[in-house]
Design brief:
homodimer; alpha/beta; Lyase, Ornithine Decarboxylase, Chain A, domain 1; TIM Barrel; 2 domains; eight-stranded mixed β-sheet; 31% helix
Chain lengths: 359, 359
Amino acid sequence: MTGLSDAMLAPLDTPAVVIDARKVEANLKRAQAYADRYGLKLRPHIKTHKMPHLAIRQLELGAVGITCQKLGEAEVMADAGISDIFLPYNIVGEPKLARLAALRRRVKMSVTADNAVVVAGYASAFNDPSAPLPVLVECDTGMGRCGVTTPDAARELALRIAAAPGLRFAGLMTFPATHRTSETQAFLQTAIAELTAAGLHPAIVSSGGTPDLYSAGEDAGIVNEYRPGTYVFSDRFQVTKGLGSYEDCALSVLATVVSRPTDTRAVIDAGSKALTSDLLGLEGYGYLPDYPEARIVSLSEEHGVIDLSASARRPEIGERVHVIPNHVCPVVNLFDSVHFVQADGAIQDVPVAARGRVG
Amino acid sequence: MTGLSDAMLAPLDTPAVVIDARKVEANLKRAQAYADRYGLKLRPHIKTHKMPHLAIRQLELGAVGITCQKLGEAEVMADAGISDIFLPYNIVGEPKLARLAALRRRVKMSVTADNAVVVAGYASAFNDPSAPLPVLVECDTGMGRCGVTTPDAARELALRIAAAPGLRFAGLMTFPATHRTSETQAFLQTAIAELTAAGLHPAIVSSGGTPDLYSAGEDAGIVNEYRPGTYVFSDRFQVTKGLGSYEDCALSVLATVVSRPTDTRAVIDAGSKALTSDLLGLEGYGYLPDYPEARIVSLSEEHGVIDLSASARRPEIGERVHVIPNHVCPVVNLFDSVHFVQADGAIQDVPVAARGRVG
């Protein structure tokens, strides 16, 4: 079902993260082709994979740069030679500002702010008018996380950024779960108009999120950069959101059935330390492509308990099963290395280079 | 509130796992004193801390050995000189059986089985009658995870173990959320009676779980070994279960407030990649001892969103806050190293040596 045979995977012990390299390539190419069709710039979010070779491939295919969620990720990517990194996060405190400044001396960096304290921090750490730090204003267009909450506040913060000699107002950034709602569009359009009237036209308007990736082109008049992350592997959440099918999921956790205590129960050696407890609103802790009616009903740290009541076929003790996780990003973050299966069946062990970084 | 001052922790950047070494010592001593009072053997579960120096301290205080949840943990602990390890898990497949055999040549190992397939695997890998592998039968006394489901099945499996020349039936093991229910007691008493009648008196009857630790002594006539894990640090779940107070929680995640988008919302730089999504039936993703009325209402991977509506005092941007996690075990597993604060304020960075192991 995953297209990877048991014989291919025989060298791996479980639990293991298995990635079909061909599906990754297809997922990356499909997204880039879509973005190219609409003139939308892709700046993939590497928090999903945390692996330099995939970031490099995303750039080779046409991405304008990458997105990282924390300095530790950006440092690893800069070490790997990546030269254009967007960090859509409020960077707070002197140690982190010093790390940002060190990165900025090596590569092209841009960041966000959603408040004046953070802007003041950037202004204190960056004061070279000949090479100002690009700062985007984060807007809360419905997510309820970070971000200024009105277009007026976006304009005020942009003016503050523009007033700092070592900073440059570079645009707007949002992360909506639903970027195409009229609320989001109205916020961004009003903010763009107000900023333009104030002489601060936002060069970049950046949105993100894989679920909306394949409708982002229709907004290309407003949003001109897009930061998809999960599309590289996809996962159960994305499939339930309509992003392709389980056939497009490139990553699975390979697990072994270690117990069949009852006729309807199986226990696998992948628990919350392999699959995470992320539900994202779904029922159960993953999808078994070889046993689609099976439900992972609970996780302990090293056990996954599967209810087979609805499944006519049932796995035996010792059988290995694939689990497509609910949410692939924190799963990759649990593993020191993952296994890429190439078209010829060769398996490459790749370290998750940017995992486990502090801030 | 945590007893660790901001000045002490100033050298640390966030997010960081901070551990009060004095509280750890108090938690370990309290449990050992309780066990000693009842003649209950403690075999602490190291999946919580994954750090050899804590396992060694648990043994110094009187533990009879340790418990690991997977071979990778046991290998790290054996490397650190620990010589008596219980692995209450069905070890399945030749690579893992070979690793178990290699461990067995170095240290005293015992394992569990809950089915005949697993016993056959052990019997094929261990065939030296002069040094048989001790195997306990895992019993499901209410948890609904692994384990034989009846006392009769326990006896049958024990007979199968006893019949294998290279194996030795060593006792019964259970992991009940509620080990003192009459259901659990009835299961164990019946199984013990049946086994004794069959000439296979179970030398060890092992139970576990920190929530029931301080009532386990009253069962010492039935259960003679106990495997608490979380007691070393405690966490929000344990406190809600009645295990001491938040003052006994030795571990917190130190985070920085990076945004205050509205009067009632704060955002910290600890999300699901620092706190995990584990709820364990609780509301919210952790407890803030300095802001007890605050609620962590949602997590993204690198953001924790806090609702301050009920909190009169509210933190500013840049302020650092402690979060006592819902479930401490998977939190430790996310970090490559953690920070122990000693009584004199010295901070020691300690690698989480046994994290990230495969199986």
